[in-house]
Design a protein that fits this description.
Elements (H helix, E strand, L loop, with lengths): L1 E4 L9 H16 L3 E6 L9 H13 L9 E2 L4 H13 L3 E4 L3 H6 L9 E2 L2 E2 L10 H10 L3 E4 L1 H8 L3 E4 L3 E4 L9 E3 L7 H11 L4 E5 L3 H14 L5 E5 L2 E2 L15 H6 L4 H9 L8 E2 L3
The structure holds glutamic acid.
């Protein structure tokens, strides 16, 4: 068994991250497996080294040890580029020149584009550009790369994944529309990088928050298209604050750094979290 915890260094870790890390770590250690850290720093404009160091210090304080050096997405750009080349050669991706404003304007809906599980569903404007225009604009304009979802779904067929303890779930990637795989400002999107990294790191069990369950539809499709192994998934309940809302990086009181600096015993907290006991004022969101 190999599990991982994959923080994005764009803010301080909070109790929800601690819960996720503790579950993934405990699952690996109780099966004599490995536990690894991945730093999801693909978004160079928002990632900060101070948050990388702070996250590792938080994990250490919780008594979480990890195998090998943390993997950094910023060191894996070559694998993202190779996967995109592969999809490009099969005409499963296309360059998209649209801005957010273009996308909103191209839809007649008064409140902007309809939302799918990954955000606004792309209306497909750039999917059918004539080859000449596409080539000319690629040389001159910033662009992202989108998956041609209809072609991808047709190529992959019906897909399922196993949600631990719940059996097989049908994946519904089409609900996401033409997702972005490489951004204008980053060489891979979360979906592409995370899927490739989990496979590249040999992750057997993806243990992460229930907020990412819809993303698994897209990840399962990418696994099929790119010939990657399919891990087992466990999407756990999210930690909520006193207001019943899931924690966010802006909830300063739940930041692990604040608890650490206030003298809270990190190992005792980790043991409580592993047993499903949360500090006063926090709870697990009902599924
Ligand atoms: N880096 C992602 C996050 O912090 C987690 C990715 C994942 O677990 O797949 O939300």
């Amino acid at each position: 068994m190999l599990t991982r915890f994959a923080p994005s260094p764009t803010g301080e870790l909070h109790l929800g991250h601690a819960y996720s890390a503790v579950l993934a770590h405990a699952a690996a250690r109780s099966a004599a497996g490995k536990f690894r850290i991945r730093i999801d720093d693909i978004d160079g404009s928002r990632s900060r080294e101070a948050y990388v160091a702070g996250s590792l210090a938080d994990l250490d304080w919780l008594g979480i040890d990890w195998d090998g050096d943390p993997v950094r997405q910023s060191d894996r750009l070559g694998s993202y580029a190779a996967a995109l080349d592969d999809l490009r050669a099969r005409a499963l991706v296309y360059p998209c020149f649209c801005t957010r404003a273009d996308i909103a304007a191209s839809l007649s809906a008064p409140h902007g584009p309809p939302n799918g599980p990954s955000g606004a569903i792309y209306p497909g404007t750039c999917r059918t550009l004539p080859a000449g225009e596409r080539d000319r604009r690629m040389a001159a304009e910033p662009h992202c790369w989108r998956l041609d979802m209809a072609r991808a779904v047709a190529a992959a067929g019906d897909l399922v994944w196993e949600e631990q303890g719940q059996g097989l779930r049908a994946a519904d990637p089409a609900a996401h529309g033409d997702i972005v795989l490489a951004r204008k400002d980053a060489p891979a999107s979360y979906h592409l990088a995370s899927t490739l990294d989990d496979a590249g790191m040999g992750v057997t069990h993806v243990i992460r928050g229930a907020d990412l369950i819809a993303s698994t539809d897209a990840h399962r499709l990418l696994q099929a298209l790119l010939g990657l192994p399919v891990p087992l998934y466990c999407h756990h309940a999210l930690v909520c604050g006193a207001d019943g809302q899931r924690l966010a990086k802006r909830d300063a009181a739940a930041a692990l750094k604040a608890l650490r600096e206030a003298g809270v015993d990190g190992r005792a907290l980790a043991a409580d979290l592993a047993a499903g006991r949360l500090p006063a004022g926090y709870s697990l969101q009902k599924p």
